[in-house]
Amino acid sequence: MTNFSELTTLHVGGPARKVVRATTEEQLIAEIKAADEAGTPLLVIGGGSNILVGDSGFEGTVIVVETSGNSYEIDACSGGMLQVSAGVDWDEFVAFTLEKNLANLESLSGIPGTVGAAPIQNIGAYGHDVSEVIARLRTYDRVDKAVKTFTADQCEFGYRNSIFKREKDRYIILDVTFQLRRGEFSLPIKYKELADALGVELEAKVPTQDLRAAVLALRSKKGMLYGERNQNWSAGSFFVNPIISAEVSATLPDDAPRWPQGDGSIKTSAAWLMEHAGVSKGETLSGAKISEKHVLALTNSGSATAEDILELARSARARVHEKFGITLVPEVRFVGAEL
What span, in angstroms and rounded, lies between the C-alpha atoms of 182 and 81? Predict the structure, then answer.
């Protein structure tokens, strides 16, 4: 029997009763239908990079999406339209777009996971989200039992959110179509950390390959590149950056990061809150550990259980709430587990 320690980047979690690896869209839909018709609990995963499964495992069918392939049209003026299967590795796809001289995904380099998982939580980094470049996507609707296409507007994208996250497990993403700009220069740089790494001013544009290299270097420095040697296992950023009201923002110290949002709210840094609430890099709880490179990465140092990770997360979240009155929201999806 397969354990979730073999299926997730945290390498924790109990047994999966049945695991199916779907390599074609037809197989993926057929397996979903079979499980639903039999009344079998169903869990669909991609690269396992944003999920924590409890130590009791999952009593049902686990489908690992491994569909592959893409089609694309690139025009010298209008850019590229690329339709990509859900099981394609995200960072391999980003690298492919840059090889084709297509821009706008370079700041999302190095994010683990698959293309199909990207729209669910609207992945993003360094001031840009994947929703900016999605034209449409195809899904299998488990309620209507039919393939359904969503335009970008219908996806109801928000900060680390979408209709697919809110209506959890209803829509299984089959493929995603991206509209990318043709060009060799990046979008304007929005984050000082990234600008400093490149030696340029904010709002500057740089060659896309240079920006990708800088992003990968920063993610490596923070321990956010999965599969690097001598790195503890993690799910990337465990908590999302909080979106708070202007009133709550005013209660934070002057040096707290603040990124104004279009609706008057303020985004602040979960990592800053944790560090200033006494959460330290390298602190441990049984086999769980706060990364020595970045406080937002809760890691499995090799012997952690799912409950060890959860207990460390509870401790960090409680200290932030006690210090600042802000409750951190997990970015990681829990299955058979909760904070």
Answer: 10
